[in-house]
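Chapter review: from sequence to fold.
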Amino acid sequence: MSTTSKPEVATNSEQASTALLSIRSVAKHFGKNIVLRDISLEIAEGEFLAILGESGSGKTTLLRILAGFEHATSGEVWMSGERLDTQPPYRRRVNTVFQSYALFSHMTVEQNVGYGLAIAKRPNAEIQSRVAEALGRGTMTRYMKRFGFYAKPPIDLPSGELNVSAPHASTGRAFRPGSPDEDIGRIAIGQGGLEVTPLQMAMVASAVANGGRLMAPHLATKAVDQDGRTVKTITPTLYHQVMKRSTADAVAQMMKKVVDEGTGTPAQLGAGITFAGKTGTASVGVAGANQTQPWFIGFAPIQNPKVAIAVTVERSDGGFGGTVAAPIAKTVVQTLLAEGK
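The C-alpha coordinate string follows.
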Protein backbone atom coordinates (compact mmCIF):
# COMPACT_ATOMS: atom_id res chain seq x y z
CA MET A 1 0.00 0.00 0.00
CA SER A 2 1.42 3.39 -1.04
CA THR A 3 0.99 6.63 0.86
CA THR A 4 1.75 10.29 0.30
CA SER A 5 2.85 12.97 2.70
CA LYS A 6 0.41 15.32 4.35
CA PRO A 7 0.12 18.75 2.76
CA GLU A 8 1.47 21.52 4.96
CA VAL A 9 -0.87 24.39 5.78
CA ALA A 10 0.20 28.03 6.18
CA THR A 11 -2.08 30.86 7.25
CA ASN A 12 -1.62 34.58 7.57
CA SER A 13 -3.56 34.98 10.80
CA GLU A 14 -4.22 33.20 14.04
CA GLN A 15 -7.13 30.81 14.18
CA ALA A 16 -10.37 32.39 15.29
CA SER A 17 -12.49 30.76 17.91
CA THR A 18 -15.45 30.53 15.50
CA ALA A 19 -14.48 28.99 12.14
CA LEU A 20 -16.11 29.80 8.85
CA LEU A 21 -14.89 26.51 7.42
CA SER A 22 -14.13 23.43 9.53
CA ILE A 23 -12.45 20.33 8.09
CA ARG A 24 -12.71 17.46 10.54
CA SER A 25 -10.60 14.28 10.25
CA VAL A 26 -11.00 14.10 6.48
CA ALA A 27 -9.41 11.14 4.70
CA LYS A 28 -9.51 10.10 1.05
CA HIS A 29 -8.52 6.73 -0.39
CA PHE A 30 -8.28 5.83 -4.06
CA GLY A 31 -8.24 2.08 -3.80
CA LYS A 32 -5.13 1.22 -1.75
CA ASN A 33 -3.63 4.65 -2.26
CA ILE A 34 -4.21 6.96 0.73
CA VAL A 35 -4.15 10.52 -0.61
CA LEU A 36 -5.43 12.31 2.49
CA ARG A 37 -5.01 11.02 6.03
CA ASP A 38 -6.84 12.58 8.99
CA ILE A 39 -6.83 16.22 7.80
CA SER A 40 -8.30 18.62 10.37
CA LEU A 41 -8.31 22.37 9.85
CA GLU A 42 -10.31 25.44 10.81
CA ILE A 43 -10.41 28.61 8.68
CA ALA A 44 -11.75 31.89 10.03
CA GLU A 45 -13.81 34.33 7.99
CA GLY A 46 -11.57 36.77 6.12
CA GLU A 47 -8.53 34.56 6.57
CA PHE A 48 -6.22 33.88 3.60
CA LEU A 49 -4.92 30.33 3.55
CA ALA A 50 -2.37 28.57 1.35
CA ILE A 51 -2.05 24.78 1.09
CA LEU A 52 1.52 23.74 0.28
CA GLY A 53 2.77 20.32 -0.68
CA GLU A 54 4.61 18.29 -3.28
CA SER A 55 2.86 16.93 -6.35
CA GLY A 56 0.46 14.18 -5.32
CA SER A 57 0.21 15.23 -1.69
CA GLY A 58 -3.56 15.81 -1.97
CA LYS A 59 -3.87 19.59 -2.35
CA THR A 60 -6.29 19.45 -5.29
CA THR A 61 -8.11 16.46 -3.81
CA LEU A 62 -8.87 18.44 -0.66
CA LEU A 63 -10.20 21.37 -2.72
CA ARG A 64 -12.33 19.00 -4.79
CA ILE A 65 -13.81 17.57 -1.59
CA LEU A 66 -14.68 21.08 -0.40
CA ALA A 67 -16.33 21.86 -3.75
CA GLY A 68 -18.21 18.56 -3.82
CA PHE A 69 -16.42 17.05 -6.84
CA GLU A 70 -14.99 14.26 -4.69
CA HIS A 71 -16.44 12.46 -1.65
CA ALA A 72 -14.27 12.00 1.41
CA THR A 73 -13.68 8.41 2.48
CA SER A 74 -14.21 9.56 6.05
CA GLY A 75 -14.50 12.77 8.01
CA GLU A 76 -16.74 15.82 7.79
CA VAL A 77 -16.70 19.33 6.34
CA TRP A 78 -18.70 22.12 7.99
CA MET A 79 -19.32 25.70 6.87
CA SER A 80 -20.96 28.39 8.97
CA GLY A 81 -22.27 25.76 11.32
CA GLU A 82 -23.83 23.60 8.57
CA ARG A 83 -22.66 20.22 7.30
CA LEU A 84 -21.20 20.88 3.83
CA ASP A 85 -20.01 17.51 2.56
CA THR A 86 -23.52 16.03 2.45
CA GLN A 87 -24.78 18.73 0.05
CA PRO A 88 -24.54 18.57 -3.77
CA PRO A 89 -21.96 20.90 -5.37
CA TYR A 90 -24.52 23.37 -6.71
CA ARG A 91 -25.83 24.06 -3.21
CA ARG A 92 -22.43 24.82 -1.69
CA ARG A 93 -21.31 28.44 -1.38
CA VAL A 94 -17.82 27.43 -2.51
CA ASN A 95 -16.02 28.31 -5.75
CA THR A 96 -13.03 26.51 -7.21
CA VAL A 97 -10.70 27.84 -9.92
CA PHE A 98 -8.81 24.97 -11.51
CA GLN A 99 -5.28 25.09 -12.86
CA SER A 100 -6.59 25.34 -16.42
CA TYR A 101 -7.35 29.01 -16.99
CA ALA A 102 -9.13 28.51 -20.33
CA LEU A 103 -12.25 30.58 -20.91
CA PHE A 104 -15.49 29.18 -22.28
CA SER A 105 -14.84 29.64 -25.99
CA HIS A 106 -18.56 29.86 -26.85
CA MET A 107 -19.11 32.76 -24.42
CA THR A 108 -18.28 36.44 -24.62
CA VAL A 109 -15.89 38.07 -22.15
CA GLU A 110 -18.90 39.46 -20.29
CA GLN A 111 -20.50 36.02 -20.06
CA ASN A 112 -17.26 34.42 -18.85
CA VAL A 113 -16.76 37.03 -16.14
CA GLY A 114 -20.39 36.85 -15.04
CA TYR A 115 -20.72 33.06 -15.25
CA GLY A 116 -20.62 32.45 -11.51
CA LEU A 117 -23.29 35.07 -10.90
CA ALA A 118 -25.46 33.56 -13.63
CA ILE A 119 -25.14 30.10 -12.06
CA ALA A 120 -26.15 31.70 -8.75
CA LYS A 121 -29.25 33.02 -10.57
CA ARG A 122 -28.53 36.65 -9.76
CA PRO A 123 -30.68 39.25 -11.57
CA ASN A 124 -29.39 40.30 -15.00
CA ALA A 125 -29.04 43.92 -13.92
CA GLU A 126 -26.83 42.89 -11.00
CA ILE A 127 -24.69 40.66 -13.21
CA GLN A 128 -24.15 43.42 -15.77
CA SER A 129 -23.34 45.93 -13.06
CA ARG A 130 -20.83 43.72 -11.26
CA VAL A 131 -19.19 42.63 -14.52
CA ALA A 132 -18.74 46.29 -15.43
CA GLU A 133 -17.03 46.90 -12.10
CA ALA A 134 -14.81 43.86 -12.57
CA LEU A 135 -13.72 44.76 -16.09
CA GLY A 136 -12.63 48.17 -14.92
CA ARG A 137 -13.48 51.82 -15.00
CA GLY A 138 -10.64 52.56 -17.41
CA THR A 139 -11.86 50.08 -20.02
CA MET A 140 -15.42 51.41 -19.83
CA THR A 141 -14.26 55.02 -20.13
CA ARG A 142 -11.98 54.24 -23.07
CA TYR A 143 -14.76 52.64 -25.09
CA MET A 144 -17.29 55.32 -24.18
CA LYS A 145 -14.90 57.94 -25.53
CA ARG A 146 -14.41 55.93 -28.71
CA PHE A 147 -18.18 55.83 -29.19
CA GLY A 148 -18.33 59.62 -28.85
CA PHE A 149 -19.43 60.03 -25.24
CA TYR A 150 -17.98 62.93 -23.19
CA ALA A 151 -17.82 65.16 -26.30
CA LYS A 152 -20.21 67.07 -28.55
CA PRO A 153 -20.89 65.12 -31.76
CA PRO A 154 -19.00 66.32 -34.86
CA ILE A 155 -22.14 67.19 -36.79
CA ASP A 156 -22.75 70.24 -38.97
CA LEU A 157 -24.88 72.16 -36.48
CA PRO A 158 -24.05 75.18 -34.28
CA SER A 159 -22.14 74.08 -31.20
CA GLY A 160 -24.70 75.75 -28.92
CA GLU A 161 -27.40 73.42 -30.21
CA LEU A 162 -25.49 70.27 -29.26
CA ASN A 163 -25.36 68.39 -25.97
CA VAL A 164 -22.72 66.08 -24.57
CA SER A 165 -23.78 62.50 -23.84
CA ALA A 166 -22.17 61.55 -20.54
CA PRO A 167 -22.87 60.50 -16.93
CA HIS A 168 -24.15 63.41 -14.84
CA ALA A 169 -24.27 64.06 -11.12
CA SER A 170 -27.61 64.74 -9.39
CA THR A 171 -26.74 68.45 -9.60
CA GLY A 172 -26.75 68.25 -13.40
CA ARG A 173 -22.98 68.59 -13.72
CA ALA A 174 -21.34 66.21 -16.19
CA PHE A 175 -18.64 63.97 -14.74
CA ARG A 176 -15.20 64.14 -16.28
CA PRO A 177 -14.17 60.93 -18.11
CA GLY A 178 -13.20 58.19 -15.66
CA SER A 179 -14.26 60.16 -12.59
CA PRO A 180 -14.20 58.02 -9.42
CA ASP A 181 -17.59 59.55 -8.60
CA GLU A 182 -19.21 57.78 -11.55
CA ASP A 183 -21.30 54.73 -10.67
CA ILE A 184 -19.61 52.71 -13.40
CA GLY A 185 -21.55 49.53 -12.58
CA ARG A 186 -24.92 51.18 -13.14
CA ILE A 187 -23.64 53.17 -16.11
CA ALA A 188 -22.90 49.83 -17.80
CA ILE A 189 -26.64 49.12 -17.90
CA GLY A 190 -27.65 52.65 -18.94
CA GLN A 191 -28.42 53.94 -15.46
CA GLY A 192 -26.25 55.83 -12.96
CA GLY A 193 -27.08 59.32 -14.22
CA LEU A 194 -26.15 58.50 -17.82
CA GLU A 195 -27.76 61.09 -20.10
CA VAL A 196 -27.61 60.49 -23.85
CA THR A 197 -29.13 61.96 -26.99
CA PRO A 198 -30.84 59.86 -29.67
CA LEU A 199 -28.13 61.01 -32.09
CA GLN A 200 -25.42 59.58 -29.83
CA MET A 201 -27.19 56.23 -29.59
CA ALA A 202 -27.78 56.11 -33.35
CA MET A 203 -24.03 56.65 -33.71
CA VAL A 204 -23.42 53.66 -31.42
CA ALA A 205 -25.66 51.47 -33.61
CA SER A 206 -24.00 52.74 -36.78
CA ALA A 207 -20.51 51.93 -35.47
CA VAL A 208 -21.52 48.30 -34.93
CA ALA A 209 -23.17 48.21 -38.37
CA ASN A 210 -20.05 49.67 -39.99
CA GLY A 211 -17.66 47.02 -38.72
CA GLY A 212 -16.51 49.00 -35.68
CA ARG A 213 -15.87 52.25 -37.59
CA LEU A 214 -17.71 55.29 -36.23
CA MET A 215 -18.22 57.88 -38.96
CA ALA A 216 -18.79 61.60 -38.39
CA PRO A 217 -22.53 62.32 -38.79
CA HIS A 218 -23.81 64.88 -41.32
CA LEU A 219 -27.24 66.32 -42.17
CA ALA A 220 -26.52 66.64 -45.91
CA THR A 221 -24.38 65.12 -48.64
CA LYS A 222 -23.72 68.33 -50.53
CA ALA A 223 -24.27 72.11 -50.59
CA VAL A 224 -25.62 73.88 -53.70
CA ASP A 225 -25.87 77.56 -54.64
CA GLN A 226 -28.92 79.41 -55.90
CA ASP A 227 -28.20 78.26 -59.44
CA GLY A 228 -28.19 74.63 -58.42
CA ARG A 229 -24.46 74.18 -58.72
CA THR A 230 -22.74 71.98 -56.15
CA VAL A 231 -20.31 74.13 -54.21
CA LYS A 232 -19.37 71.57 -51.59
CA THR A 233 -19.55 67.80 -51.40
CA ILE A 234 -19.68 66.17 -47.98
CA THR A 235 -17.49 63.07 -47.98
CA PRO A 236 -17.63 60.31 -45.37
CA THR A 237 -15.12 60.91 -42.58
CA LEU A 238 -13.90 58.44 -39.98
CA TYR A 239 -14.46 59.78 -36.47
CA HIS A 240 -13.18 56.86 -34.36
CA GLN A 241 -12.16 53.25 -34.83
CA VAL A 242 -14.19 51.85 -31.93
CA MET A 243 -13.49 48.13 -32.21
CA LYS A 244 -12.22 45.41 -34.52
CA ARG A 245 -14.52 44.15 -37.27
CA SER A 246 -14.63 40.70 -35.68
CA THR A 247 -15.81 42.26 -32.41
CA ALA A 248 -18.43 44.36 -34.19
CA ASP A 249 -19.67 41.28 -36.05
CA ALA A 250 -20.02 39.41 -32.76
CA VAL A 251 -21.97 42.31 -31.22
CA ALA A 252 -24.18 42.46 -34.32
CA GLN A 253 -25.08 38.80 -33.92
CA MET A 254 -26.01 39.37 -30.27
CA MET A 255 -28.19 42.30 -31.33
CA LYS A 256 -29.78 40.11 -34.00
CA LYS A 257 -30.78 37.61 -31.33
CA VAL A 258 -32.46 40.43 -29.36
CA VAL A 259 -34.82 40.98 -32.31
CA ASP A 260 -35.09 37.33 -33.39
CA GLU A 261 -35.92 35.85 -30.01
CA GLY A 262 -35.45 38.40 -27.22
CA THR A 263 -37.02 41.60 -25.93
CA GLY A 264 -36.89 43.22 -29.39
CA THR A 265 -39.15 40.79 -31.26
CA PRO A 266 -41.79 43.53 -31.91
CA ALA A 267 -39.20 45.14 -34.23
CA GLN A 268 -39.02 42.15 -36.58
CA LEU A 269 -39.22 43.43 -40.16
CA GLY A 270 -40.32 40.27 -41.92
CA ALA A 271 -39.76 39.61 -45.64
CA GLY A 272 -36.41 38.03 -44.83
CA ILE A 273 -34.90 41.37 -43.70
CA THR A 274 -32.73 40.94 -40.62
CA PHE A 275 -32.73 43.62 -37.93
CA ALA A 276 -30.06 43.95 -35.21
CA GLY A 277 -31.34 45.81 -32.15
CA LYS A 278 -31.06 46.52 -28.45
CA THR A 279 -33.89 47.52 -26.12
CA GLY A 280 -33.61 49.60 -22.97
CA THR A 281 -35.91 51.05 -20.34
CA ALA A 282 -35.01 53.86 -17.95
CA SER A 283 -36.98 54.77 -14.84
CA VAL A 284 -37.81 58.48 -14.76
CA GLY A 285 -39.73 60.81 -12.49
CA VAL A 286 -40.38 60.31 -8.81
CA ALA A 287 -39.89 56.90 -7.24
CA GLY A 288 -42.97 54.70 -7.43
CA ALA A 289 -44.65 56.71 -10.20
CA ASN A 290 -44.08 53.87 -12.72
CA GLN A 291 -42.85 56.35 -15.31
CA THR A 292 -40.37 55.01 -17.85
CA GLN A 293 -38.40 56.17 -20.87
CA PRO A 294 -38.29 53.27 -23.38
CA TRP A 295 -35.43 52.97 -25.89
CA PHE A 296 -34.59 50.96 -28.97
CA ILE A 297 -31.49 51.22 -31.16
CA GLY A 298 -30.56 49.11 -34.15
CA PHE A 299 -29.63 48.81 -37.80
CA ALA A 300 -30.84 46.91 -40.87
CA PRO A 301 -30.31 44.87 -42.93
CA ILE A 302 -27.51 43.16 -41.04
CA GLN A 303 -25.72 41.82 -44.15
CA ASN A 304 -25.71 45.20 -45.94
CA PRO A 305 -26.73 47.92 -43.47
CA LYS A 306 -28.63 50.88 -44.90
CA VAL A 307 -30.30 52.40 -41.85
CA ALA A 308 -29.19 52.95 -38.24
CA ILE A 309 -31.82 54.19 -35.83
CA ALA A 310 -32.42 55.25 -32.24
CA VAL A 311 -35.95 55.63 -30.89
CA THR A 312 -36.91 56.91 -27.47
CA VAL A 313 -40.21 57.90 -25.91
CA GLU A 314 -39.57 60.40 -23.15
CA ARG A 315 -42.53 59.44 -20.95
CA SER A 316 -44.41 56.18 -20.78
CA ASP A 317 -46.73 54.70 -18.17
CA GLY A 318 -44.71 51.63 -17.33
CA GLY A 319 -43.82 50.81 -20.94
CA PHE A 320 -40.67 49.03 -22.03
CA GLY A 321 -38.22 49.43 -24.88
CA GLY A 322 -39.46 46.26 -26.54
CA THR A 323 -43.15 47.09 -26.31
CA VAL A 324 -43.10 50.85 -26.93
CA ALA A 325 -39.96 51.92 -28.82
CA ALA A 326 -39.30 48.79 -30.90
CA PRO A 327 -42.58 48.95 -32.89
CA ILE A 328 -41.84 52.59 -33.76
CA ALA A 329 -38.38 51.64 -34.99
CA LYS A 330 -39.90 48.88 -37.09
CA THR A 331 -42.29 51.27 -38.84
CA VAL A 332 -39.61 53.87 -39.54
CA VAL A 333 -37.05 51.38 -40.86
CA GLN A 334 -39.63 49.59 -43.04
CA THR A 335 -40.61 52.94 -44.58
CA LEU A 336 -37.00 54.01 -45.23
CA LEU A 337 -36.04 50.68 -46.77
CA ALA A 338 -39.18 50.72 -48.97
CA GLU A 339 -38.17 54.17 -50.19
CA GLY A 340 -34.72 52.89 -51.07
CA LYS A 341 -32.90 54.79 -48.34
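Two observations follow directly from the output. The radius of gyration is 28 Å. Residues 321-338 form the longest helix (18 residues).
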